Amino acid sequence: MKFINHKIKILALAAFHTGIGLASAQSALNKTETTTSQSGKIIPTDLNWSERMLLSEMHRFPESWMLDFSKSPKWTYPAAIVLDGAEQLYAKTGKKEYDNYISDFGEKLVTEDGTILTYELEKYNIDLLNSGNVLLYLYEKNKKEKYLKALQTLRLQIDGQPRTKEGSFWHKKIYPYQVWLDGLYMGMPFYAHYTKDFSKENDAAKAYDDIVFQFDSVQKNLLDKKTGLLYHGWDESRQQAWADKKTGLSPNFWGRGMGWYGMAMVDILDYLPQNHPGRSRLISYIKSFADAIIKVQDKKTGLWYQVLDKPEEKGNYTEATASAMFVYMMIKSVNKGYLPQSYKKYAQKGYDGIIKNLITVDENGVVNLNKCCAVAGLGGKPYRDGSYEYYVNEKIRSNDAKGTGPFILASLEFEK
């Protein structure tokens, strides 16, 4: 898709989808549009929130590899969440610019021989499987050989991914014996979707069993039975400074960590066979998960906090990415029948809270999602100790794809 330079005056509302060329993604956040008018906003205000946010992302990041503030084409995970929304919006509206935006990601990141730019299989970083979902979409659509080769490379990573003694995937090779909630979303929907598309009979059955086991293991090792919340990480070896020496658990309930896990559960059910015995267990996990997050939902705003169970502590804040993820997980579960209709009111309260408290709209119609935690993890250099102080002091920014993507997906569920 071609984007015109932002210095050229936009002549008509029909041109809204062209967006604006930017020197860098970061500069888009602070840019002031001077050529808009009530009749010619960059993002029309009469569209649904899903389209308004996707078009705003396309305006901020004219090429899809720029999503989440990438400075150069890099194989990473956040773009895939926004592009998941773009896939659904293309199917819903037929607007070719959405399909072009998705296709641009594959064209820029995968060379003709199937090499994935910046990807290194030997690092066994489970985060890097998530964007494989974009390639599954593109291969299903156009059957390009380069996408098949790239997908086969990503599937090889699953075969070699190091595991705990009982079989849970390590989050990364550099984080030995560690299981993080994040990893379930990063790896399992791709694993399940790939299996549905390419695996047969015994191979498929074995893969589906392995996928369900990953959730069974998390429920066993990371769940706090008292609150129903799940800890961010678990170190089987108990060697990490952040890990409790007795349990191996990290010390806090991080909002987005649980958000990743909730989205993973509801998304893999799109691919897990209806007759698989693990479906009923996963649906039971979704129910207990929803019950736990409802208990820590802020009664006033409907939002969720960065550290879920400590709303009154100094520095804590209602955080956008976790809130969007929880809303998406609940409303999709209601729509799919995994949760009773009575849960919709909690999803609706959260969604309304996001729009009222975290969404701002610029004069030119561009939509912003504010108060997103930029990043959080455990261990590494500099060392992240998993303390309350660590989580509440990580960088906060607007328009993080880890929030805008789930917001688009949640909006689509409400718009059904």
TrEMBL record:
Keywords: Hydrolase, Signal. It comes from Chryseobacterium profundimaris. The keyword Aminoacyl-tRNA synthetase does not apply. This is Unsaturated rhamnogalacturonyl hydrolase. It comes from the Bacteria. The keyword Nucleotide-binding does not apply. InterPro entries: 6-hairpin_glycosidase_sf (IPR008928), 6hp_glycosidase-like_sf (IPR012341), Glyco_hydro_88 (IPR010905), PolySaccharide_Degr_Enz (IPR052043). Transmembrane segments: none annotated. Residues 1-25 form the signal peptide. Coiled coil: none annotated. One of its GO terms (molecular function) is hydrolase activity.
